[in-house]
TrEMBL record:
Record organism: Candidatus Cohnella colombiensis
Pfam families per the UniProt record, alphabetical: YjdM, Zn_Ribbon_YjdM
Residue ranges that the Swiss-Prot or TrEMBL entry lists as coiled coil: none
Protein name as catalogued: Protein YjdM
Residue spans crossing the bilayer: none
Domain of life, source organism: Bacteria
Protein YjdM C-terminal domain boundaries: 45-111
Occurrences of domain Protein YjdM N-terminal (ranges): 4-32
Length: 112
């Protein structure tokens, strides 16, 4: 058969090449053979303008956001300092003055 490596996530032997990537049909994991190490677990989070976000960055809210469970609204232009990136749908964890701890989606912020 072929001499392609097993999937690093599920150890499946049925991997195949798709362009310059290797793909596992069982768990849908994709990785590059050129990278040498599997960095596929590390998710890149980008803001509304496509800039890469990192832990500790300061971002600005680009849209009025309704705060769930409250009658208040997070206004456009609100600065959020010292963000923390987390896994999930809402990928930014932060504390906002006047609101407290909150999770935000990266598509509604821009890097300051």
């Amino acid at each position: 058969m072929s001499n392609l490596p097993n999937c690093p996530k599920c150890n499946s032997e049925y991997t195949y090449e798709d362009g310059n990537l290797l793909v596992c049909p069982e768990c849908a994991h994709e990785w590059s053979l050129d990278s040498g190490t599997d960095d596929g677990d590390e998710k890149v989070v980008r803001d509304a303008n496509g800039n890469v976000l990192n832990d500790g960055d300061t971002v600005t809210v680009i849209k009025d956001l309704k705060v769930k469970g409250s009658s208040s609204t997070l206004k456009i232009g609100t600065k959020v300092k010292n963000i923390r990136l987390v896994e999930g749908d809402h990928d930014i964890d932060c504390k906002i003055d006047g609101f407290g701890a909150m999770k935000l989606k990266s598509e509604f912020v821009k890097k300051s």
